[in-house]
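During the reporting period, our protein records have gained a structure token line. A sample record is set out beneath this paragraph:
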Amino acid sequence: MELKIIHTDKAPAAVGPYSQAVRAGNMLFVSGQIPANPATGELVTSSIEDETKQCLENAIAILTEAGTSLEKVVKATVFIKDMNMFGRINEVYAQYFKNHKPARACVEVARLPKDVNVEIEMIAVVE
């Protein structure tokens, strides 16, 4: 099976030894996206809602570059710093996944890269 590295300037560059996404066959594995503005590199910190939106927009840019979309996401994992933020994060998440609802896990973690409050990774089908 051929692996294809996916990269777009419309999402934050990887800050370590990893790729924004890897396509394996017809499956796309999108690395965890933090709320970094790809144009400036600055973290979005105004609210948990804005952070969540930026994570999702970053993931969408990668999905688009790979030739797929949110409608083809089969699994998402949401890592959050504080489970008390779950409801607010979920409200934003639901705006992006209105009719299509992929499998999902949401996990509270002790710490995330750059001390952000949320990180989102996805697995999608590419047709």
